[in-house]
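Sequence only, no structure available. Ideas?
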Amino acid sequence: AEDPKPKESRSYFVWEYGKAPDLVVEIVSNRKGGELGNTLLDYARAGVSYYVVFDPFLELGDEKLRLFARRGGSFREIEERWLEEIELGLALWEGDFENWSNVLWLRWVDRDGNLIPTGAEAKAQANQRAEEAVQRAEAERVQREDLLAKLRAAGIDPDKL
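Reply:
I predicted one. Tokens follow.
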């Protein structure tokens, strides 16, 4: 089968974009990646603003999420989950997504810590709002018809008001 995404579009090349990425997220699956050693140093030297290590299986220690901000030429670990320079935050979230149930995910959040919906969640929310609007419109139509019927029953012609 033909690869639907050319390999070039799956890599970030500083010379193509003219700058280092603002954020790099490493998802740890084993101890071989050097996420807290050489990789951390390499990204700091490259000029990456934020470096995030998501370690859901605790391969590297007892913390599932570690965030680093570049200060000068090196990274410093930060407790803050709001990344001011990119105006996004990160949070650990447990729930259902696509075909995975009750799994720990790394999710984007706004400044107040509210989850930023995935595409599927945003679509479901829009569908729910549309359905609620249809239900409200139907309830208002029924209420109007009831009121008109009561006026007619009282001998009042609503068309002549």
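The radius of gyration is 26 Å.
Hope that gets you unstuck.
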